[in-house]
């Protein structure tokens, strides 16, 4: 029996997955590059783990992340610009929003605002348009669950939902739905080693 082909779009909440990789595989004292990964390599790895009856094609990788302020954090801003340019050169769709800084900065870290909303809206829009057969969300942000539930209710026959998360000695949280059991692509430290990005973008 020939394999069924499925187009896959990977939706990445980058800061969430980066921080989770650091917490799962590294210590706080490790260099900041520990936790970085190649998004295309992640997508290809996920597609390679498809069930035998399916052949999966990585149609697109979409990254959602915060953008440092060039005046408040020129080093962080410059590094992010280099990283974004590197991603875009590889064909990745990068969607960023300015970080929000509190009056207590730099004693308090800046926060991402609206990233989860942008990812959720895009996920729903592309599912409704039939842009993917399988949409994989790489994040543990539970604010994305309503978008997942909407796609399950409205689009399941043409657009399936899967999730991805890191796993170590004990299994980390993963996104789930009460409406349907979702397949999770658990990525362990060996998987991380295959897709790690050691680039120091501050240089």
What does it look like?
With 203 residues, the chain is α/β, with parallel strands linked by helices. It has a single domain, classed as Rossmann fold. 34% of the residues lie in helices and 23% in strands. The protein is built from six helices and six strands. Strands 3-2-1-4-5-6 form a six-stranded parallel beta sheet, sandwiched between helices. Helix 2 packs across helix 6 and helix 4 runs parallel beside helix 5. The longest helix is centred in the middle third of the chain and has 16 residues. It is globular and about 50 Å long.
Map the helices and strands.
Blueprint: E1 4-13, H1 14-25, H2 39-48, E2 54-67, H3 74-89, E3 93-98, H4 115-128, E4 134-138, H5 145-155, E5 160-166, E6 183-187, H6 189-195
Which short descriptors sum up this protein?
203 residues; single chain; alpha/beta
* Number of helical stretches of at least 4 residues: 6
Q: What is the straight-line distance between the termini?
A: 51 Å
Number of domains: 1
Considering DSSP H and I runs of 4 or more, what fraction of the residues is helical? 25-40%
Task: State the shape.
Answer: globular
CATH superfamily: 5'-nuclease
Strand coverage percent: 15-25%
CATH architecture: 3-Layer(aba) Sandwich
The radius of gyration over CA amounts to 17 Å
The top-level CATH class is Alpha Beta
Reading the helices and strands in chain order gives: EHHEHEHEHEEH
What about the largest sheet? Answer: 6 strands, parallel
Main sheet: strand order = 3-2-1-4-5-6
Structural class: alpha/beta
CATH topology: Rossmann fold
Count of beta strands:
6
**Chain-averaged pLDDT:** 94
Low-confidence stretches: none
